[in-house]
Amino acid sequence: MVSKHFTVINAQGFHMRPATDFANAMGKYGCRVTIKHNGRDVDGKSLMNIIAACIKVGSEIDVVCDGEGEAEALAEAAAMIENGFGE
Amino acid sequence: MLKGVAASDGIGIGNVLLIEETSLEYTPHAVEDTAAETRRFHEAVEVFVKNTEKQAENLTKTAGEKEAKIMLGHISMIKDPYMQGEIEKQIQGGSCAEAALENMCDMFIGVFSAAEDDFTRQRAADVRDVKAGMLAILLGVNVVDLTAAAPGTIIVARELTPSMTAGIDRDNIVGIITETGGKTSHSAILARALEIPAVLSVENVTKTFKDGEKVIVDGKAGLVIENPTAADITEYTAKREEFLAEKSELEMFRNKKTLNADGTEYELFCNIGKPEDAVKAVECDGEGVGLFRTEFLFMDRNSLPNENEQFEAYKKAVMVLKGKPLIIRTLDIGGDKEIPYLGLEKEENPFMGYRAIRYCLGNKDLFKTQIRAILRASVYGDIRIMFPLVTCVEEVRHGKTLVEECKAELKAQGKGFNNDIKIGIMTETAASAAIADLLAKECDFFSIGTNDLTGYTMSCDRGNSKVSYLYSHFQPAVLRMIEKIIKSAAENGIPVGMCGEAAADPMLVPLLISFGLTEFSVSPVSVLKVRKEIAKWTKRDADALRDYVMTLHTQSEIVEYIKSKL
């Protein structure tokens, strides 16, 4: 299991497009992907659950990847979040 | 006459086409062959994906790529692994595909609708659209098809869904009326992208209107006129032609320089409040950003934004502008704003209190974090720094000293920045106008903030209805302040802009030209209008107007006189 802490920097947080891109990217990996936000565990492969979590700019989150390809999955997640989803 | 939300500008006169929601009712039944039912569900998903891709393709042509992305988002929703997994589980438990789908969609509609932020709440409309589309496929009923609508059609629907708009032919649909939706709903965004006049949130329209009925949609005023008389139709036909003529006239000013009638060039910038608004500034043909308010970075959160986060936001905005200027106003915050984590004390008189540059100079760490972020972003384009609410020379000097400190810190860390970054001030206080000649020697530019300048000069709160009659930039006192600021800038050879609402006022434009303003900064939607206004005036005509206006003694005389000359 690997995990990393992030502060969400893009202005609109995990809105429709970033959430879609994130869920689709994580869907490629065999491992479980969990976003820890406000004391809740959010399925990082589920667009619907990510939207429901209301992750905004400035939110503190942990991304936890557990299983096959966990290191690669976390690296890709980090690249997306730290890059502000290319906004 | 019915009142609603004015969501998309323009006038539409036509006949009602009532969009009745297709009945998607079914009787939930227990399923025995769960494998076959699961297959049926997945087949429906495939059809849904294919339909949606086709709709997105149509929408790319009519409304643009951004709108088409909304449709593609619907595909991601139905393909959501969690959602599919739960639906499969319910089917395996004996539920029919329709009920399983509806259950899950309704669950998310409930969660999204209860969210605090507007963005998440609006996603509920997307889930409803997905649900309706999927149910229609599963039940084998036809969904609304607008491709065959006759010319001169006004759509009346409960809600304009993205899948509906995908079939819209702009030559035939002349107006849209809905029962739900606000200015930022999908319905509104789509209507604007399609440039179809729309009035939203008009109560009970789907029940009161009949197919074929004549109706007028006024998307500017947010009005719907039922059973229009011949006189109504004449009036609105004229309004419609006027709107279209004005629109095409404004389009002639797109991608042009901003020139007065003599050919003197001006800068025409935009005021923005978020990095993504920079996109709008460019789309609206702004030549840069004359005021980037940075408060958004500090609001709606629990802690201060760090240097990196701010850097990313400024970088994002300046990259969008591709070399065009970006004037960043440092934090303008005070006791009137609710930012709990700053622990700002409530003040008796926040507008005269500890705020803006005063607060920033007193909270050096916070201020320097912002300045470092701005400096770091300055390597990506033409960024300039602007201090708000300056009242004396010391404030400018103190602010500039801190900028130099930040530069030294960044240099020590090996981080890049534009060493020649321009530093200016908002001239928005009576004091800054009075000593504009002194301040001009300390700054690289001025930008007149007319909203505060008018309020401080007239000592009046425009929100207070008992005194708001005093609030006008045509008060002789305010005009003299503006003239003094502009003249002082010119005498010292520095550029001077205006970033308040007043810069877009056609009646003020000639006076600003005569005073010698060099830059206008307005909201993105006003860019073309202001460019057109500037083009009307020669310096000579503007001077003649100014010379007479400045001899007048009252605001009403001034307003009346300028009106007579336009």
Q: How would you describe the overall organization of this protein?
A:
The complex is a heterodimer of chains A (87) and B (566). Helices cover 36% and strands 26% of the residues of chain A. Chain A has one domain: 2-Layer Sandwich (Histidine-containing Protein, Chain: A), CATH 3.30.1340.10. Chain A is built from three helices and four strands. A four-stranded antiparallel β-sheet of chain A has the order 1-4-2-3. Chain B folds into three domains: 23-139, Enzyme I, Chain A, domain 2, CATH 1.10.274.10; 153-251, Glucose Oxidase, domain 1, CATH 3.50.30; 258-565, Phosphoenolpyruvate-binding domains (TIM Barrel), CATH 3.20.20. Helices cover 47% and strands 14% of the residues of chain B. Chain B has 22 helices and 17 strands. Chain B has helices spanning 34-62, 65-78, 81-92, 97-113, 118-139, 162-165, 186-194, 205-208, 230-251, 277-283, 307-321, 356-362, 364-377, 393-412, 430-434, 436-439, 450-458, 476-491, 509-515, 527-535, 539-549, 555-565; strands at 2-3, 5-8, 11-18, 153-157, 173-178, 198-200, 214-218, 223-226, 258-259, 265-272, 289-293, 326-329, 383-387, 422-427, 445-448, 496-498, 519-522. An eight-stranded mixed β-sheet of chain B has the order 1-8-7-3-4-5-6-2. In chain B, helix 7 (186-194) links the parallel strand 5 and strand 6. In chain B, helix 3 packs across helix 4, helix 13 crosses helix 14 (393-412) and helix 19 (509-515) crosses helix 21. Chain B starts with a strand and ends with a helix.
